[in-house]
Amino acid sequence: MTTVSIARPLFGRRRTRNPMVLGLVRHVLLIAVLIVMLYPVVWMVAASFRPSAEVMNSLGLFSKNYTLDNYKQGWSAGQLNFSRYFLNSIVITTLSIAGNLFSCSLTAYAFARLEFPFKRVLFGLLLATMLLPYHVTLVPQYILFNELAWMNTYLPLVVPKWLGVEAFFIFLMVQFIRTLPRELDDAARIDGCGHWRTFIRIIMPLALPALGTTALFTFINSWNDFLGPLLYLNRPELWTVSLGLNSFLDVTGESAFGSLFAMSTLALAPIVGFFLVSQKLLIEGVATTGLK
Amino acid sequence: MKSTRTGREGLTAYVFLSPWLIGVLLLTIGPMLYSAYLAFTSYDLLSAPKWIGLDNFRRMFTADPRYFSSVKVTLVYVAVSVPLLLIVSMVLALLLNKGIKFLSGYRALFYLPSLMGASVAIAVLWRQIFGSTGLVNQVLSLFGIQHGSWVGSPGTALWTIVTLNLWAFGATMIIFLAGLRQVPAELHEAAAVDGAGPIRRFFSVTLPLMTPLIFFNLLLDTIHAFQAFTGAFVVSRGTGGPTDSTLFYTLYLYQQGFAELRMGYASAMAWALVIVLAAFTGFLFLTARRWVYYGDER
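YS: structure for the whole thing
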């Protein structure tokens, strides 16, 4: 029996329980999956630093002639102007984050801490809007913003955030505030704090992790947003990075993949950067609340 | 005394709620009702909506082959990519579960793509990877296999979008992983003592305990998949081609509503989707009692 299990350690009748071997197999599997997943992105970043003649015809990452030419050409290719697009994306993203923090924290405090008529009905409504596909409001909102003459402004992209349209973040904050001990509120009340002061001085500082998670996911969603800007921003000077990249493909076609990759790399850089500094908060946010 | 106090608290509460209430009324409920009305009209944004009864729906179901293509493409996409996403997420969560070294590093790297998957930059990269001279074909040619453009051929274009969705499985995996850590070790030990092997233990112990999370991910990933847009738009350059093979529902709705300015027809399409998703959600919640295990019930 023993000889059999030595000769065929993985497939013998008695399964070997050697943790070293099993651990190694698992690491090999995981690393193989990771390479398949991440290699294209790494390859794109490497390709963006190669001279344009070398961009497409190599599977590898290395070159003797690394250069920044693709970045210089891509940054202001044709009529495109990526300084402008990045600035626009930063403005929209910042206003969106501020809006979500404002509206979601106020709403969440009311649901988590206050008693008011129709509370259960309204909370049910909140949960229902989380599952609602955005299509059903897409057309009428477009008509509304068109009537308001908000076309080619950032208002259609930003104002909904100030009005708490992204219900998932409200839900996230309600869940978080509910875990904070009520005794803190009571103590504040005894010291003469009203609801506003309790909200600002007690609850908000303690809810920082939830606020941080909301800010990060709002950043990623509005930085990546494509359909919104596509609908509401027609003038190139208002475009976001997403729109700029998309029209890059129209303007240059497949001929300028070097600069296209360079600009794609820059578009992804802020996401990866924020991820690196806050990955713990992000992953906890996903694991505990199911945010995606 | 008490009633005035709760009355004041109620008033304060509605002040806190006011931004959200305005949003729900003006940006969600109002628009929903308006689009329900528009679904029965013909409206091009320039002249007033004209009531046409059920004509939009009649056209959708009997006289618009492209609508049927978009339904077919979307259903195939959802039916393939959601189960695939759940299985891959579960398998990798299992691989990461039992006290593996470098767990946080692995977790972070697997998670990263799900932050980038919805971006135009990655869709641009996908268009290259699956193009005629892209990475995939370069790797295949190492093995002597010749293949044309994957995004350019009607038989394969949809599958490139499926892989794009699958690539971003990290968030789903993290949720499963968090759930696996809650599975009590004693249950596994008891099952092992009773002679259950690892596969039997997975199906009889782990899987039943994970059903609440499977339910959650199935619901959200399905709703999410029905709404896919950016990948298909960028990869097909907004056409849904080749030959409508990537004409996702949302993409067709966009074309009809905002390129052809058929606002009534687009509203009818949106409501058809809402009804299908509501039916799916209702079905899921109704069957949940049969297959989702909640520990404290019984």
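YS: worth flagging: Chain A touches chain B through 91 residues (CB under 8 Å).
IM: good catch. Also The mean pLDDT of chain A is 86.
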